[in-house]
Specification:
There is one protein chain. The protein has one helix at about 5-145. It is an all-alpha fold.
Length: about 150
């Protein structure tokens, strides 16, 4: 192998150093770009963290609303049960009142029937008695001599 002269070696060394310097500059530019990308990712991560916090807050609100809805469902169920029980009780009570009213109407109807029968008997008795009295009056009028009444002054 041949030996290189010191000038050649110096020239090679300069070329290698320039090449290394160019590579270092390119690497520095790439590092700057990666740093810029890292800063963007950090900003995006911060936005995602803020969004996650908002979603966590919304989840908590939804959980609270679910609990309220569950409580309302329980109240509505309790009211429906009370309503059904109240309606059943009202139906039973109305049934009792209905039977009582029916019995009272039946008693009134029987009282009217009895009263009508008594009135019919009374009417027949009165017709009979009036006919008897009328017959007696006619007989008495027929037996009595007719008197004249004096004229009115």
């Amino acid at each position: 192998m041949s030996q290189l002269s010191p000038e050649s070696l110096e020239q090679i060394r300069r070329i290698v150093q320039e090449a290394i310097g160019g590579v270092e500059r390119r690497l520095d530019r790439r590092d700057e770009r990666f740093d810029a990308i890292d800063r963007r990712f950090d900003a995006t991560d911060q936005r995602f963290d803020a969004t996650d916090q908002r979603f966590d807050a919304m989840d908590q609100r939804f959980d609270a609303m679910d609990q309220r809805f569950d409580a309302m469902d329980q109240r509505v169920d309790a009211l429906q049960t009370e309503s059904r029980e109240g309606l059943a009780e009202n139906r039973r009570h109305f049934g009792v009142l209905h039977e009582d009213l029916r019995d009272q109407i039946r008693l009134i109807a029987e009282g009217f029937a009895t009263t009508n029968e008594r009135i019919d008997r009374l009417e027949i008795g009165m017709h009979t008695e009036f006919a008897r009295v009328d017959g007696r009056l006619r007989r008495l009028e027929a037996e009595r001599p007719r008197r004249r009444r004096p004229p009115k002054r």
